[in-house]
Structure formats: structure tokens, C-alpha cells
Recover the amino acids of this structure.
């Protein structure tokens, strides 16, 4: 036995090991032996340090997909299981996962379909209507889980996982939330990913930035620095590359860009009851469109466009095309998510990227945190008429362990990290990427979630229609020059959104919902802290 | 009384005769009906049924995703009439058609006339080249065109700059001043081969002897075109115009991949509008409105039908005019 002191890294590994042990124990069948003693230091120092509760687990290294029995009773006969989601890096994970799952359970045939959201919007309702929907699917955008339950699309997991409470206990606090992933006290899905993901980290070309004489990592940008750097990079590019790029044809990008630039300066907005981006300052219950920070952020981008710093043709690019151009060295900066990195590493291995904090008005790393709703990222739901619901429960159980999270992060963790913060180390083998992830998580706090305070608020979301033009469309119109006068335009947007929210509230009330505009006001919200259960209790009527 | 009975018997016999002749006709043409049946069944399933369904859906407040349907009568139509973005898209669709169709038809005719010249040895090659974009998927053409038209290293901007026609690159698809015209130009290029083939088919119905006789009489190329070619292809023109015009109203995949209807609605034609309303748009906020989108679709369908009827009336008038001329 070594008598060397335990380093910080070893301590973290040990903690992770203990957590893994407890989570595995939670999902393990009752007969499975649970470790009673803490692992030795030697075990903790091992590179493949996840302690095994079964012999099968011994074969799995950290980050491997490890299929082992859970407390869920799986079907014995030959069955087919089908899963549908929006694909991308998720598809890479599922294909590997199902390959191993089928090997472990030869009686189960797995079918994975990764499709665009447009196709999901057609396939899921049709499948439900015909009684042959995928056993596990993503709910189409624009349909809330509450609505899916009301329509009989999805069912809870409670009767499928015998030790559900134990499994849930392994998740971070506020992971299971009524109105997000629990309804009527029943658990409908596991929040397997984090929703604390920024859409607007400053991703930049190291060589071009260095040549321009800026260091946004050492000295995080102010808005003025950002503008000046974009101009400088454009000038030095002399038509070969430009200061900044984004997907101007992809409408939601405008909401993210302006929203985040504003939020980091203390202009608050929220994530609504169904998890989509919202635009209310929940301290006052007012729309933020006429907020000085919001107007300022639009004016900043307009000024950068007037400088000629934007990549030519950015208005007709989508986010993927913008990312591809960035990887080819055609632009110096882009405000997007860390998921771009996986693509660049695969497609542009010579591209030297780096990540810095999103520019703020004050700069120097001073910012007001971004906020995500409680309840994590919920992507997969159990079809109400699935003939193999146990398989969905089993897969959720496997994914909801530290081991499962390590494996997920190893494939998808950079862009779509799992919900267990301690499992993030497998997300990349490059230290700077892990630092970027750490920086991203630091930017976030859990904000107030409307449905937690009043579950009836989801009924308002069901009534709401995006005003036309939406805020994203108006910003696009301002950027393309089809609309002039930022303040006037944003006042129009605010009026339209206020009118629509009031209409939706009235419609929901007429249908029996107990809601009011006061439900959108959280006066005790401290932006710098997580909004906790105690805070909800404090404002309870 | 007897007379009445006789009349009744005769009437009954006539009905029987009619019935038997109807059944006999059906039996005699059984092979025609049998061969037509698959396409009739498919048309019923995939054309007539959806059309009738959309009439019904247009009377509902319905997202299209759920079982929650509320009958709202003509409320969707009433809302549609007030919807500025609907009218903008509606007019833009016809603007698209009015600009694209004449240019496309004239260009296609000129190319068809040139390619119809038997002296041109490479005409099959040119014909294939011009027709190739027609059989290429519109979405792929759209994707490729975004690269070709790009203001950053796009070859079209490169050529224009090399010719000193521009000093700054043109953002064909991102500038609201140019984007609709650009989409129209891409549409014309992509579908040019189709009317060209129609025109070629029409041109090949003109007897060669007429041209030979005209040449003997000393008629030049223009005179032959004006006095022989054009008058004799006019009956075909009505059908070609109709097909091309209807085609110009179905541009969804091309516009969706080129611009998505933007920037800020600048290229939002009716199909893109219907898609946006039916599926809730990109932002995913609020409930998609299949009922309302169906109302827009029905309204637009009726407008297109009126156009088609107008053209059918034009074709009939022309035919009557020609038969009058022949009888004189």
C-alpha cells in the first residue's frame, strides 16, 4: 500500500468512484452484491477506476458503454425496440449503444432512427395515431410534454423501475421537477443531459486572433473589443477571411445571439415552462425587448455589419454552413455552442480553434449569469402503447448512472453534456476543451421555472402562438435592412408579445386554468444564485 | 287507359334498354377501366382524399398533431383575410409566376427552335444538357446554388468581378433587393428544359413541306417563324403555359433550400407560408396550426383553379376561332 498523500485529482476520481458505486447499486437488481467498503486508494488511482459491482463491470473502462443488468425485468422472447430522436451526435452514441445492447440481449433487436425535427413532427403524431410509434421518441417541437400526456402519447416509468426513488436520488438536485419531467407526481422521463449549454460561446480562430493582436481568453472581450477585433480581423483578411460569421438565415440564432449578449449584462430572461427560450424578466414579469441591453446588443451587431465585419452572405447561411466556413478559416469569430468543436475535430483537423467567454459590456470576465430551467434536458419519452416499455426503462436506468454518463460524455459530452457534473472528464481528451466546458457551466445558474411554481402555466403555453413577426424575424429584418429604427421595432415586438401572452392567459383561464400574470413575477430572485425550493416556498401565496 | 299503359311500358323498356346499354358499355370497356383502376385508386388515396380532407381541416382549429379539434366554421378564412403575411405571400406567388413564366417560355421556345434545326448536329447533346437540371432534385439544386451564388468565393460573383461589372460582391440570396429575383432566375434555369421539350414536341408536328414550300416562295427565317411556326404551335402554347404557370406556383423545395422564405419574408411564397403556419415555424414556440394552414391552402387552391379555368376558357375560345377560320 502506498503512503503517498491523495492528490486533488485522485480525490475527485475517488469521489466519482463512490458516486458510481452508489448509482450502480441503485439501478442494480436486489441480488447484485453492493460494495460495502470504500475502494482502496490503489483502486482509485487506477486509470480504469470505476469499481465493479458485478463481474461484467470489471471489463468496462471509464467512458465505455457498459451493458449490465438493472432492476428492470426485461422481456424474454424475441422483441424489437425502436428509438427516434433528432440524430446528429446522439445517433453516434445510440448506434454503439445498441450494438452492445443487442449483444448482451440477443432476443432484443434495436432500431434507431435519427431524423430532423421536421420529420419528427410528422412521424411521431402519425405513429401515435396508427398505434405503431417508436417505443421511445422525442416529442416534436411546439408540443409540450403536458400536451403529449393529455393526448395519450407517453406514459410514466414508475411501475417499470422497482427502485425508482433510489435511481433518481443519484441525480443532481432539482433534476426531477413537476411540470418538466414529472406530471401528477409520476416520473415520465429522466433528464439525462444538462440544459446548461450556451448557444453563444466566443469560438475563434487562434491564428487570426493572434495576428490581430487580441487575447479574448486572457482578457475577455467587452462589446467594444469584440467589434474592434472583428474589424481588425476583416482588414487583415483582405477579402480572404472576415471578422465574424453566423447563420443569419436560421431564425432562432438571432434570438440566442441578442438574448445572450443581453442576459450576460444582467438583462434577465427566462426559460419557459416547456423549456423553450423565453424573453421575460421574471423579476418584474415584463418582456425585455425594450431593455437598453437588448437594444444595445442589436445595435452592436448592426454596427459590426456596417463595419463590414460580417462574413459576406451570412444572411443566407444556416448555423451548419456558418460552422463549416469557420472551420475552413473563412472567419475569425463565431458566437455558437461548444458542439461545433466535435465537427471541426472530425472535418477540419488542422483548424486551430479556441473558446472564450461571450463578450460583455464591461468585459474582463464580468458577467451576470445565464439561467436554465430546473429539470435538465429531457429528450426521450416512453410511448404510451409501447410493447416493450421495460427496455426504455432499462436504457434510462443505464444512462442514468455515473458510468452511463461517462460513456455518453465520451461521445457527445462536448456539445451535449450529461447531467452528472462529475462525469464531464470523459467529454474530451484535450484539456482546453474541458476548460471550455468548465467555463460554460460556471456561466449558468438554475433560474426560476414557471411550471414548478404553478403547473397550470403549461396550459398557457399550449394556448400561446408566436406573434408574426416574431422577435427573431424582426431582428433578421433589422439586420437585412428591411426594418429600420431598432427602438420602434422592438416596442412593436413587446406590444405584440404582451398582447399574445394576455390573450393566452385569458384563454387558459377560460378553460379552467388557475393562472395570472403574477405567476410570471419572482421578486425574490437573486440572479447570482440558483433558484431553489426554498425560494419557491418563500413566494408561495 | 291502354295508351297510358303503352307509354308506361315503352318508358320502362327505354329505361331497361338504357340500363343494359350502360352495363354493356361498361363491360365492353372493362379493360380500359381495369387498366385505369390502379391510377384512379392511387389518385383517390393521395390526391382526392387529401384535397377533401383539407377542406374539412380548414374549418377546424387544430394543430394537426393532437386529437383536440374544434370546429370553428369559417373563422380561419375570416382570420386569413386579415392576415397581412398571407396576402404578401399570395401576391408574391403570383408575382413569381408572372415574371418567371413568360421569360421561361420565350427562352425555351427560342432554344427549341434552334435545337429543332436538323442541321445542328449536336442538338441531342444540348437538349440533354438543358434538360438535366429538370431531373435533378430541387433541394440539391438549391443547396448547390447557395454555393454558386455565394458572395464569398462564389463563381458567379467571381465572373461578374472579372468582367468589371461589379466592384463589391452581390449577396444574391441575403439582400432583400435581389433575393426574389435570384430565386426566380434559379427557377427559370432549373425548369427551362421542361417547356423546351414541350415546344420541341409541338415544333415536330409542323410538316416539313410547309417550310420547304415557304423557302421556294422566298420566305426567310423570320418570315417562316412568324407565318408558319408560331401560328401552328399556338394551340400547344395554351397547354404549355398552363403547365408552366402551375409549376411556377410549386416552388417549395427550391425556396426552402435557397432562402427558407427570408430574409424577413422577402421570398415567402404561398407554399412556404403554408408550411410555416402548419408546422409552427422554426422557433417551435406556440402550437402549429394545420387548420389555419389548410384554409390558406384551400384559398390558394381555388385561386389556382380559377387561373386554370381561365386558361381552359382561353383554349376553347382559340379552338373555336380556329374552326371558324377553317370553315371560312
Amino acid at each position: 500500500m502506498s503512503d503517498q498523500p491523495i492528490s486533488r485529482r485522485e480525490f475527485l476520481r475517488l469521489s466519482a468512484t463512490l458516486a458510481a458505486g452508489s448509482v450502480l447499486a441503485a439501478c442494480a437488481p436486489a441480488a447484485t452484491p453492493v460494495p460495502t467498503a470504500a475502494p482502496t486508494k490503489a483502486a482509485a488511482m487506477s486509470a480504469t477506476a470505476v469499481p465493479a459491482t458485478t463481474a461484467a463491470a470489471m471489463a468496462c473502462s471509464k467512458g465505455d458503454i457498459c451493458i449490465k443488468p438493472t432492476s428492470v425485468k426485461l422481456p424474454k422472447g424475441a422483441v424489437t425496440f425502436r428509438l427516434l430522436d433528432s440524430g446528429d451526435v446522439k445517433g453516434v452514441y445510440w448506434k454503439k449503444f445498441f450494438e452492445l445492447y443487442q449483444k448482451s440481449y440477443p432476443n432484443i433487436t434495436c432500431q434507431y432512427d435519427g431524423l430532423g425535427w421536421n420529420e419528427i413532427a410528422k412521424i411521431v403524431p402519425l405513429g401515435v395515431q396508427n398505434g405503431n410509434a417508436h417505443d421511445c421518441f422525442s416529442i416534436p417541437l411546439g408540443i409540450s410534454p403536458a400536451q403529449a400526456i393529455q393526448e395519450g402519447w407517453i406514459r410514466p416509468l414508475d411501475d417499470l423501475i422497482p427502485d425508482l426513488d433510489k435511481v433518481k436520488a443519484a441525480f443532481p438536485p432539482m433534476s426531477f421537477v413537476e411540470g418538466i419531467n414529472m406530471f401528477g407526481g409520476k416520473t415520465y422521463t429522466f433528464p439525462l443531459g444538462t440544459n446548461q449549454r450556451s448557444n453563444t460561446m466566443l469560438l475563434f480562430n487562434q491564428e487570426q486572433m493572434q495576428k490581430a493582436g487580441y487575447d479574448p481568453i486572457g482578457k475577455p472581450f467587452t462589446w467594444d473589443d469584440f467589434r474592434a477585433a472583428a474589424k481588425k480581423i476583416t482588414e487583415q483578411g483582405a477579402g480572404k477571411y472576415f471578422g465574424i460569421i453566423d447563420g443569419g438565415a436560421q431564425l432562432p440564432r438571432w434570438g440566442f445571439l441578442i438574448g445572450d449578449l443581453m442576459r450576460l449584462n444582467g438583462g434577465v430572461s427566462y426559460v419557459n415552462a416547456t423549456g423553450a427560450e423565453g424573453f421575460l424578466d421574471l423579476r418584474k414579469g415584463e418582456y425585455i425587448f425594450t431593455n437598453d441591453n437588448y437594444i444595445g446588443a442589436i445595435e452592436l451587431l448592426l454596427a459590426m455589419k456596417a463595419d463590414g465585419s460580417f462574413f459576406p452572405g451570412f444572411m443566407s447561411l444556416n448555423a451548419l454552413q456558418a460552422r463549416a466556413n469557420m472551420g475552413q478559416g473563412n472567419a475569425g469569430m463565431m458566437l455558437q455552442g461548444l458542439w461545433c468543436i466535435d465537427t471541426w475535430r472530425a472535418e477540419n483537423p488542422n483548424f486551430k480553434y479556441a473558446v472564450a467567454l461571450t463578450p460583455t459590456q464591461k468585459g474582463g470576465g464580468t458577467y451576470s449569469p445565464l439561467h436554465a430551467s430546473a429539470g435538465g434536458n429531457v429528450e426521450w419519452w416512453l410511448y404510451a402503447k409501447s410493447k416493450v416499455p421495460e427496455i426504455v426503462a432499462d436504457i434510462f436506468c443505464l444512462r442514468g448512472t455515473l458510468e452511463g454518463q461517462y460513456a455518453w460524455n465520451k461521445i457527445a459530452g462536448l456539445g451535449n453534456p450529461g447531467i452528472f457534473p462529475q462525469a464531464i472528464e470523459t467529454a474530451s481528451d484535450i484539456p482546453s476543451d474541458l476548460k471550455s466546458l468548465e467555463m460554460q457551466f460556471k456561466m449558468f445558474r438554475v433560474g426560476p421555472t414557471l411550471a414548478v411554481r404553478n403547473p397550470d402555466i403549461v396550459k398557457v403555453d399550449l394556448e400561446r402562438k408566436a406573434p408574426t413577426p416574431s422577435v427573431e424575424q424582426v431582428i433578421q429584418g433589422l439586420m437585412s435592412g428591411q426594418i429600420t429604427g431598432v427602438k420602434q421595432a422592438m416596442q412593436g415586438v413587446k406590444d405584440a408579445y404582451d398582447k399574445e401572452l394576455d390573450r393566452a392567459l385569458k384563454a387558459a383561464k377560460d378553460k379552467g386554468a388557475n393562472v395570472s400574470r403574477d405567476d410570471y413575477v419572482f421578486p425574490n430572485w437573486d440572479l447570482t444564485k440558483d433558484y431553489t425550493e426554498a425560494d419557491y416556498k418563500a413566494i408561495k401565496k | 287507359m291502354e295508351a297510358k299503359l303503352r307509354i308506361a311500358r315503352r318508358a320502362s323498356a327505354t329505361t331497361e334498354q338504357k340500363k343494359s346499354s350502360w352495363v354493356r358499355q361498361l363491360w365492353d370497356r372493362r379493360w380500359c377501366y381495369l387498366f385505369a383502376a390502379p391510377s384512379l385508386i392511387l389518385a383517390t388515396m393521395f390526391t382526392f382524399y387529401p384535397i377533401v380532407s383539407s377542406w374539412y381541416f380548414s374549418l377546424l382549429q387544430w394543430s394537426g398533431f393532437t386529437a383536440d379539434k374544434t370546429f370553428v366554421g369559417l373563422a380561419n378564412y375570416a382570420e386569413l383575410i386579415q392576415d397581412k403575411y398571407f396576402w404578401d405571400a399570395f401576391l408574391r406567388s403570383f408575382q413569381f409566376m408572372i415574371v418567371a413564366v413568360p421569360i421561361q417560355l420565350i427562352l425555351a421556345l427560342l432554344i427549341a427552335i434552334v435545337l429543332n434545326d436538323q442541321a445542328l448536329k449536336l442538338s441531342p447533346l444540348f437538349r440533354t444538357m438543358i434538360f438535366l437540371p429538370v431531373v435533378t432534385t430541387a433541394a440539391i439544386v438549391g443547396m448547390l446554388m447557395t454555393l454558386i451564388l455565394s458572395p464569398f468565393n462564389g463563381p458567379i460573383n467571381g465572373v461578374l468581378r472579372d468582367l468589371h461589372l461589379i466592384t463589391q460582391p452581390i449577396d444574391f440570396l441575403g439582400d432583400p433587393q435581389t433575393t426574389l429575383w435570384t430565386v426566380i432566375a434559379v427557377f427559370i434555369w432549373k425548369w427551362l428544359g421542361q417547356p423546351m421539350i414541350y415546344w420541341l414536341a409541338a415544333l415536330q408536328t409542323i410538316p416539313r413541306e410547309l417550310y420547304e414550300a415557304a423557302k421556294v416562295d422566298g420566305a426567310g427565317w423570320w418570315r417562316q417563324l412568324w407565318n408558319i411556326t408560331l401560328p401552328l404551335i399556338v394551340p400547344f402554347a395554351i397547354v404549355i403555359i398552363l403547365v408552366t404557370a402551375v409549376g411556377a406556383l410549386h416552388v417549395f423545395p427550391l425556396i426552402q433550400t435557397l432562402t427558407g422564405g427570408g430574409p424577413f419574408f422577402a421570398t415567402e411564397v404561398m407554399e412556404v407560408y403554408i408550411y410555416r403556419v402548419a408546422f409552427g415555424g422554426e422557433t417551435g414556440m406556440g402550437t402549429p396550426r394545420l387548420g389555419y394552414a389548410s384554409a390558406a391552402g384551400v384559398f390558394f387552391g381555388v385561386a389556382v383553379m380559377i387561373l386554370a379555368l381561365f386558361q381552359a376558357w382561353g383554349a376553347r375560345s382559340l379552338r373555336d376561332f380556329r374552326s371558324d377560320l377553317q370553315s371560312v
User: Anything to note?
Assistant: Chain B has a mean pLDDT of 88.
